[in-house]
Amino acid sequence: MVEDEDLLLETTAKTLMRFGHEVATARDGQEALAILAEDDQFDVVFSDVVMPGGVSGFDLKRHCDTHYPHLIVLLTSGYNDFSNREAVDVLTKPYTHDQLIQLINRHLLS
After folding, report:
1. Which of the residues bear the PTM 4-aspartylphosphate (predicted)?
2. pTM of the shown model
3. I want to staple 57 with a disulfide (CB 3.0 to 4.6 A). Which of 34, 49, 101, 106 is the partner?
4. Distance separating alpha carbons of residues 108 and 110, to the nearest angstrom
């Protein structure tokens, strides 16, 4: 999970763990890339789109698509103007825990 808002990072990670997922967290795209460079055995990356540090969620997705094609990359944003910018679905904030779990399970089970 990649999210620059600490409270959202913490509560979402706890939700994912409560539903049986193991979670690693990063506060920006650069930290996420460093974690992936050490261990790429993740199934899903769930990332905010807009983050500090120069690596957006879209940048992270493109990097993962190229270097870690086995990863499912799911994005979220509080902004709604991203729908046509990239060929990817963006879960709009605020989202419910049920919406998040359904999204992740749908991608993991497909």
Report:
1. 48
2. 0.92
3. 49
4. 6
